[in-house]
Design brief:
Length: about 400
């Protein structure tokens, strides 16, 4: 069972090694799409996640986390192959749907496999630290991949997508060697509990667990600004006259900062105490406002605030959800989390696109920053009411 821990480091090194990050906006726009159409593709992806997420979470709980992870990597690889050669909105939409299926099969299943492995090894308290360390590996490998991506793109625009597909198929090979934790295998003994019943009972569990729901609501709000901010990185860099071939170097720095933050999640939580969540959101809002009023190359440095939040976000949120969820429904509950955060994001993506299509990069950040200030104040009082001293929830 200890082998799972070592393999998980290797798995995290390839599973998210998608080289398109630094150039994805430029890549999609080069196919003749508008910014609004680009964000519509992300809406299609988010809606697909909503449709796939919980059923695939049940599959992970019922059939096994390992097989769900393997299938997820396969579909993500196929989607990258489609993306490389797509030249229409329709084909790009198919790529997004296949990618969403792969992500849904993998999301929650890998986290659940790690957490259940630690339970079997009586190392449950190590989860937050291991989650942070393994996510740091994601960002380190993405950092190296970022430098490669922009140069590959300049050479041949298809290469980043094709190489990403190769890494997804390597992830499949690594996942074959995972051992299903015995606590996960026990889930299969409850075959008399139908898929539908398992799904409904897990939904009730999430809905009735007030503190888990509070964290999920926060996560949904955070995710809107987190993903929306990503769409604006490349337009901002173009607006301050940074050549696309340097995007990879800049994203290298972004990923190093995210990795640095992820490895120090325990320190961050201990320092911020009961304000951890609101401080994460404030990093995003402050970044938007700074980018809005600094129309110079140096403004790129303020995107680093978003990278700090990116590195800390999942270890903080997933630790809390895992801590309060039984093993037999863990992957399904994590899938409900992903489903719930995708619904508002799907609705908001086109708004981010319309704002960018009708404004320059700086004015777009002013609008999003203004919305962010109002949201931040609202979330402060919401979290204080739900997770304050009277309802203290130790993250």
């Amino acid at each position: 069972m200890k082998k799972n821990i070592k393999l998980f480091y290797l798995y995290r090194g390839t599973a998210d090694l998608l080289l398109l990050g630094p150039i994805i906006v430029v890549f999609i726009l080069s196919k003749g799409l508008s910014f609004t159409e680009l964000t519509m593709l992300n809406t299609i992806s988010a809606i697909s996640v909503v449709l796939f997420e919980v059923p695939t979470g049940v599959i992970a709980d019922k059939i096994g986390r390992k097989y769900s992870i393997i299938a997820g990597a396969f579909f993500m690889g196929v989607s990258m192959l489609i993306l490389a050669y797509a030249h229409s909105f329709f084909i790009l939409a198919i790529s997004e749907i296949v990618f969403a299926l792969g992500m849904a099969l993998r999301s929650g299943a890998d986290t659940a496999l790690l957490y259940d492995t630690l339970i079997v090894l009586d190392r449950e308290e190590d989860y937050r630290k291991l989650e942070g360390k393994t996510r740091a590996i994601i960002y380190y490998t993405q950092a190296v991949g970022s430098i490669v991506a922009s140069f590959l793109f300049v050479w041949n625009e298809k290469l980043p997508a094709l190489l990403s597909a190769v890494f997804m198929f390597i992830t499949m090979g690594i996942s074959l060697f995972f051992v299903e934790p015995s606590i996960s295998k026990n889930n299969k003994e409850n075959e008399e509990v139908s898929y539908n019943k398992h799904m409904i009972e897990s939904a009730k569990f999430v809905w009735n667990h007030k503190k888990i729901m509070t964290v999920i609501v926060f996560s949904a709000i955070f995710y809107i600004f987190y993903r929306g901010g990503f769409f604006y990185f490349q337009p901002y860099m173009q607006a301050v006259n940074i050549n696309v071939k340097y995007f990879g170097v800049i994203f290298f720095v972004f990923n190093i900062v995210a990795a640095f933050a992820s490895k120090r999640v325990d320190v961050f939580i201990n320092k911020t105490k009961n304000n951890t969540l609101i401080i994460l959101l404030s990093f995003l809002v402050i970044s938007f406002l700074c980018l809005a009023f600094i129309p110079y190359t140096v403004g790129v440095l303020f995107i680093l605030l978003q990278q700090l939040a990116r590195g800390l976000y999942k270890p903080v949120v997933f630790k809390y959800i895992n801590k309060h969820t039984e093993s037999f429904r863990r992957a399904t509950v994590l899938s409900f989390h992903n489903l719930i955060i995708c619904i508002p994001a799907a609705l908001m993506y086109p708004l981010f696109g319309l704002i960018m299509d009708n404004n320059n990069a700086f004015d777009a950040h002013k609008i999003i920053g203004g919305i962010g200030v109002v949201t931040l104040i609202t979330m402060y009082f919401y979290l204080k009411n739900k997770l304050g001293k009277k309802n203290k929830a130790k993250i």
